[in-house]
Every structure is written in C-alpha cells, then in structure tokens.
Amino acid sequence: MEAINDIDQVHHYDQADDTVQLQPQRSMPEPISSALEDVLSDTSLSYFHRLRKATWLELNTLFRLAAPAIVVYLLNNVVSMSTQIFCGHLGNLELAAASLGNTGIQVFAYGLMLGMGSAVETLCGQAYGAHKYEMLGVYLQRSTVLLMSTGVLVTIIYIFSKQILLLLGESSSIASMAALFVYGLIPQIFAYAANFPIQKFLQSQSVIFPSAYISAGTLVVHLLLSWLVIFKLGGGLLGGSLVLSFSWWIVVVAQFVYILMSDKFKHTWTGFTLQAFSGLWDFLKLSTASAFMLCLETWYFQILILIAGLLKNAELVLDSLSVCMTILGWVFMISVGFNAAASVRVSNELGAGHPKSSAFAVVVVTTSSFILAVIIAIVMLLLRHVISYVFTGGSTVADAVSELSPYLAISIVLNGVQPVLSGVAVGCGWQAFVAYVNVGCYYFVGIPLGCVLGFKFDLGAKGIWSGMLGGTLIQTVILLYVTCRTDWIKEVEKARNRLDRWDNLTEPLLKDQKD
Q1: Which of 287, 458, 6 is nearest to 466 (CA)?
Q2: Are 451 and 470 in contact, with CB atoms under 8 Å apart?
Q3: 363 and 411 in contact (C-beta within 8 Å)?
Q4: Among 212, 222, 220, 224, which Cα is nearest to 245's?
Q5: d(Cα 304, Cα 208) in Å, to the nearest integer?
Q6: Could you read off the pLDDT of 52-71 as tens digits, one per residue?
Q7: What is the DSSP code (8-state) at residue 515?
Q8: Are 479 and 418 within 8 A, CB to CB?
Q9: Which of 10, 107, 148, 280 has its CA 20 to 30 A from that of 466?
Q10: Could you give the C-alpha distances from 303 to 236, 290, 308, 345, 461, in angstroms and in order?
C-alpha cells in the first residue's frame, strides 16, 4: 500500500478531469465508482477504519459479480453433462462415445474459444473503466470475427474426429460412435465463437445476472428437448448432440437480443461496423496468448487421467480419479466465477485510473476465494470415506477415493488461488507471460515429475498427482510473487496506452497502403 499512497495527487486530478468530461453526458452508462479509491486515499481515517470500510465496499461489489458468474458456469456445465447422461441411457457404448466426445474433443474447442474470448475481457473491461464506451462493441465484433474464423479450422478437426480417435488407440466401435456424436456438435463450435465474446462484453460492464437467467431457462428447454429427441423421436447420439448445439445457440441469440433491446448498452453497442475487420492481427496476437494460457491449464489435468491409464490396475485407478476429477471440476466452476470477477474488477479499475482499487480488489478476491476453497477442502476430507458413493456403490472405489482425498483437498485449495490470479492476469493483459509460466511449470516440471514419481518410484496415481501438484504450486507461487511486486501505477499507464493504441486501429489497412 505504501507505493500506492504516492498517487493521491494523480488520482484527484483524474477524478476531477473525469467529472468535467462526464457531467454533460447524463445519458452515458454509469462510470466506475471512485468510492473505493476515495476511501483508500482518505488519510484522515485510521488505517483499520479505511481497511474495514474498503473491505465492505469491495466484498459487496465482488459477490455481486462472482455469484451470478458461478451460476452461469455451473448451469452451462449441467447442460453438457445432462446430454451425456441422456445418451448414457441408450447403452454403455453410447455413454462411452458421448463421454469421449464431450470431455475429449469438445473440451478442446471450449478451452480454445473461451481462451481467445478472454482478450475481449481485457480490452472491454479497461475500455469501460476508461469511459471509451463505443469501443466495447468494436472489440466484441473483432473477437467474433476471429473466433468464427478459428471455428472453421476447428470444424476440420471435428470432421476427422474418427481418424484422430483411431490414431489415439480407441476401438473402432467407440471411435465411430463418438465421431457421430461430435458431428452434431459442429454448430456448437460457432455458438462458442459468438457466445464467449458476448459473455465477456456483458461481464466487463458488470452485467451478469441476465446471463444466469438465460442459462437457467435454456437448461429447462434443453432437458425437455433432449428427452423428446433422444427417446421419443429416436434421435440417438446425433440427435442428442444436435440438441446440445441448439441449446447453446439459444443462449447466444437470447443474450444478443438482450443487448439490442436493453437501454444499458446503447452507448457500448452502436451497431455493426467495418472497424471489426481492422486491427485483426494485433487482436489475434492477444487472443492467441489468451487461448494458449487457458488451454494449457485446461489440458493439464486431462493429461493426468491419460497418464494414469498406463498404470497397473488401470480400471480402479481411472474410476477413483474420475470421481476426484468430477468433484474438482464442479469446485473449479466456483473458482472460474471468482476468475471472472477478478478480471472485471481489475480491468475496470485500471481503465478508470484507480491503482489503489486495482491492488485492493486483487487482495480481496484472492483471499475470499482462498478461504472458500479451504472450507470446501476440509468438507471433502471429512466426507472422504462416503463421497464416492454419490457416483458408485463399490467399496473398492470408495477406499481408493479416500486414499486420494488429501491430493484432492490440496488441488481444491490451489484452485482457490491459481484461477483467480489468472483472472488478474487477464484483467491486466498479462496473458502471454502467464502462458510461458504455464508451459514451464506444467509441462517441464509437473508432468515429468509426476511420471517419475508414478512409474520410476512406483507411487502410482499418488505419485503422478503429486508431481502435477508440484507444477501447479510453482506456477501459483510465481503468479503470487509477480502480482505482489506489481506497480499498479504503471499498470494504469499501460492500460491507458493500450486503449489509446487500440482506439486508433480503425483504418490500418489504408494506412499501410499509403506508407
């Protein structure tokens, strides 16, 4: 906090300047409040009085963002899982095919599109804080253009999914059925391409509850349509996956109609523009770094299951790990909600020129997520002997899950911090740096160490998981160190420079031709 105390004069100047600029524009969206910055800068209050008042302000803002974001991600997860459950009632082969298509190939597209979409989170969040409202719609459209183009390339992977699965060693019957399921998910690729930029556009303006309501309504429609198409109309696997794609398009259309109909966005969405096709190369670089960062994290624990399949008694190992990974996946949705909140808070405050608020928001969101993760981890340890019976009735699997529960608890705690720090990185625009950190910690430390402990020292799943936890711990420590050492005054300046540069990218092609 000492370094941040040096900016009081800058802060008051910015605030006065903002007031002069915003006063005549009464119809503009409500600017980012300076209440938190004012409290943190008020030296007439005692340190503990400032801390208590600032904490209350930030917690109120944080949970209004995090709670609906968590609901959105959980409901979206339930939509995909429900399709898998419906298909599972068709038979064991259909269950295996849907699981492979859903958690294998489909996760790749989800991670890629969500990662690329986080570039919008950085730019829209900072632009909204800086009152450059008209640029939010431009960033939304630029991202959609890039993601739709990427979707064409991903479609090729989906088309050849059977050949890919056969190369990976899957049986011909499962590969054929999984490919059939994946073909029905091709429209979902382009729904992702449209959804994630829209979702980040809304989040950057702290508008999240409508997405939660839309997701809840879509889930109800999805369940009814899935039951009707799969069982009553005999649509089978292909019908189930097509309904899943259709449900995602419901979310996209509903959110976009909300943007068009609501007065909240008349300054941030001003209609379609040709600016969406300018500055695409720079936008692609930021989007690629964002995708690289998120995909490396998403794939990391998927690799744990693949490696564990090579162990002795692989069936029991995979059963117990599947239970643990399912639990971890659900808890991770909570962390993703805090990730979104962290990104919005940091990017908005940086764009608004509030360095103290940015730093304080990081502390509050990280601490809140960590405390909640510790509580959940303790509950998991207390229920370690019975938690597996939710998924299976076998006592052998229950015993195996009980032995792995300490590793699950540690993973939950680390996931309470690491995704939040990634959200801070997105808010600041550090995606490329975090991607390099992820490569080093995950793939040059975590996986090799896990393989050595699991196979060389014959520690099995515990050894593999221990090594990969080591990689996650190192990555978390690095991000914590970098975040603690951050000069938030410089980050504010970087945000302003970034927005000025992106704001000027309106006609780069004409400029290049002239040069």
Answers
A1: 458
A2: no
A3: no
A4: 222
A5: 33
A6: 999 999 999 999 999 999 99
A7: -
A8: yes
A9: 107
A10: 30, 20, 8, 32, 12
Q: Is 369 exposed, middle or buried (0-12, 13-18, 19+ CB in 10 A)?
A: buried
Task: Write the burial class of residue 302 (CB in 10 Å: 0-12 exposed, 13-18 middle, 19+ buried).
Answer: middle
Per-residue buried b or exposed e for 110-149, using 16+ beta carbons within 10 Å of the residue's own CB: bbbbbbbbbbbbbbbbbbbbbbbbebbbbbbbbbbbbbee
pLDDT (tens digit per residue) in 112-162 = 898 898 888 888 999 999 989 989 999 999 999 999 999 999 999 999 989
Residue 299, pLDDT score: 78
| Residues whose CB falls within 8 Å of the CB of residue 81, separated by 6 or more in sequence, listed in order | none
| Residues 6 or more apart whose Cβ sits within 8 Å of residue 84 | 95, 98, 99, 102
Question: What is d(CA 128, CA 131) in angstroms, rounded to the nearest whole number?
Answer: 5
pLDDT for the residue 28: 66
For residue 58, which amino acid is it? E
123 is written with which tokens?
């730019």
| Alpha carbon distances (Å) from 66 to 334, 345, 355, 385, 396 | 8, 10, 21, 31, 38
How far apart, in whole angstroms, are the C-alpha atoms of residue 287 and residue 196?
Answer: 12
The answer to which of 23-32, 37-46, 128-137 has the lowest mean pLDDT is 23-32
CA 28, CA 361: separation in Å to the nearest integer? Answer: 25
- pTM score: 0.84
Please give the structure tokens belonging to residue 198: 């829209």
User: What pLDDT score does 312 carry?
Assistant: 82
